[in-house]
Amino acid sequence: MATPRTLFDKIWQSHLVDVQEDGTCLIYIDRHLVHEVTSPQAFEGLKLAGRKVRRPDLTLAVADHNVPTTDRSKGIEDDESRIQVETLEKNVKEFGVPYFPVMDVRQGIVHIIGPEQGFTLPGMTIVCGDSHTATHGAFGSLAFGIGTSEVEHVLATQTLLQAPAKNMRITVEGKVPAGVTSKDVILAIIGKIGTAGGTGHVVEFAGEAIRDMSMEARMTVCNMTIEAGARAGMIAPDETTFEYLKGRPMAPKGGEWELAVEYWKTLPSDEGATYDKEVVLRAEEIIPQVTWGTSPQDVVPVTGRTPDPAAETDPGKRASIERSLSYMGLAPNTPMTEVKIDKVFIGSCTNGRIEDIRAAAAVAKGRKVAANVHALVVPGSGLVKEQAEREGLDAILKEAGFDWREPGCSMCLAMNADKLEPGERCASTSNRNFQGRQGPGGRTHLVSPAMAAAAAVSGHLADVRDLAN
Amino acid sequence: MEKFTQIRGTAAPMDMINIDTDMIIPKQYLKTIKRTGLGKHAFAEMRYNADGSEKPDFVLNKPQYRNAQVIVAEDNFGCGSSREHAPWALLDFGIKCVISTSFADIFYNNCFKNGILPIKVTHEQLRELMDDAKKGSNAVLEIDLENQTIGRPSGETVPFEIDAHRKHCLLNGLDDIGLTMEKASKIDSFEEKRKAAAPWA
């Protein structure tokens, strides 16, 4: 009998083009997403070497990091941002790469539009010059971020040189309590294993709590696998996956759909497959999470407090806690719900999908954003925005005082005009609370969309469960 | 890509865990469409005040470390964003080698594409090398890729591991793309097989 294989093993083995003597593998890449920030130097490299894009038909480009989230019909004001977007437009034209223009309704964050279009499919290898490519693993694909040299390599050869990864399984057993979302699940996982907990591994998420999640929720979990240091995160495809994909513009149709589903059903890990590392969490024990520091692993339940460096015996860790608290402007042992905020950001490739907007609107309904807070809602794509408006979510949010914007990466990394001022504090649904991430000197608390909306209407970090209707 | 064989240079101590790529090169400098010129922005937020003046306490601003070629840092160096601007900025500053107990995967890969050698050592070795790096102008380390050793100021050497393919490419300054293009016929036949097995892909 054949050795039982994991989902990762199956995808890896079916994409091997060549294996060198030292074990380095050349793997085939099925889908390549391209954006304006990490691609200009790759296209330039191709031009200098006189190379072409091998498979433009497997490539999809969009501008997302630099685009304004206000009226964009007048173009981009910032010169550097505009040049970067124009450079992408020039490159896709020259190399014949499919592209969603800034004014196209399909424009949005790369990791939102790939799944939305059915460009992302189970069993595939998917790359992008962006670490949050891990998002696409929610479909049972092997998806990971690459650097610009690798972007150039994929454009030229449709392959990538990779060392094999190890297998890790994170099982979340049981059902999550009310008020707890997939964002809280992944933050709790990162809190448990740390930001280097997954280094060298591909993580497969399993267990009842994961199976129960919608595709949107699964994408949030896989998206932040990179914050646990893993190369990729993935979830076995099932009926939820097929249901989401069926009828999407780039998904297979007719007989090919049947054939594809039949194949996708063979992908889940075999009974008895082994993992190099296993972690198990109980969903019932997870409480809405919030970060207090400057690394995603600096996370506590919203009912908790900031840590006390004096209680830490390891001098390195103590210094790190002190540095984080000082940057964040927080005293030790501060209850998280007493932390006042200035801004709220709801959006990003982590939480910019329709369910996230619905969750925020559910909390916002009939309430008002606190006077001291500016709250931004940035849909992940033009289609998410359109759907939210069809459902009347924009009206609820605007009525509550939220600022309803055009799609893009926005204040997740503040490459466009949306940013924190030095010292400003933000409850954010994005993925990184690094120093200066949302603007130099800005302070970020990572939370779920429901928790972000709760913070917006409370004026301080708040436990969304206390606001339940 | 420039070859990496041996270097003898000052090592700067960065006694911090989780030095992320946002710290190495903040996003406001990612708007460039070039690979060069990022050295002056490396570690910008730790290195400069808001008015653009230097923060004298930051290690790379200290006279004895301004020409550092090596960084010695704690766990999980290069975590976060995949931006290759991080190794570009380090290289443009003059950093050719980073020594840590662990690296984030994407950053680790990106280093090799740019002629930077990331070296993984044990916690104990790192403590010794960190102490060496803190010796200011005496903080000179000798990195020998061929023999896979780090020479310490004391004369002792620390051995390190590296995979053979990456070592070969660094030693010879080889471009991966050129090597892979030589395998075009293998890629062609893979594509044909894939088309038959998974026509939707």
Helices of chain B, by number, come to 8
The coarse overall form of chain A would be: globular
Q: In which range does the helix fraction of chain A lie?
A: 25-40%
The SSE order of chain B reads: EHHEHEHEHEEEHHH
Strand order of the largest sheet of chain B: 4-3-2-1-5-6-7
Features:
heterodimer; A: alpha/beta; five-stranded parallel beta sheet; 16 helices; 32% helix; B: 201 residues; 8 helices; 7 strands
Task: Explain what the structure shows.
The complex is a heterodimer of chains A (469) and B (201). In chain A, helix 6 (182-193) packs parallel to helix 8 (215-223) and helix 13 (354-364) runs parallel beside helix 16. The model of chain A has no long low-confidence stretch (mean pLDDT 97). Chain A contains 16 helices and 19 strands. In chain A, 60% of the residues are buried. Chain A is of the alpha/beta class and 469 residues long. Chain A has helices spanning 7-13, 40-49, 79-95, 110-117, 148-157, 182-193, 208-211, 215-223, 239-245, 254-264, 315-328, 348-351, 354-364, 382-390, 393-399, 449-458, and strands at 16-19, 25-28, 31-34, 59-62, 99-100, 125-128, 142-145, 159-162, 166-173, 201-206, 232-234, 277-282, 289-291, 299-301, 343-346, 374-377, 403-404, 425-428, 443-446. With 201 residues, chain B is α/β, with parallel strands linked by helices. Chain B is 32% helix and 16% strand. Chain B has helices at residues 21-24, 44-47, 85-93, 105-112, 123-133, 164-172, 176-181, 184-197, and strands spanning 6-14, 70-73, 97-100, 117-120, 140-144, 149-151, 157-159. Chain B has a 7-stranded mixed β-sheet. Chain B is globular and about 60 Å long. The two termini of chain B are 34 Å apart. The interface between A and B is large, with 75 and 55 residues.
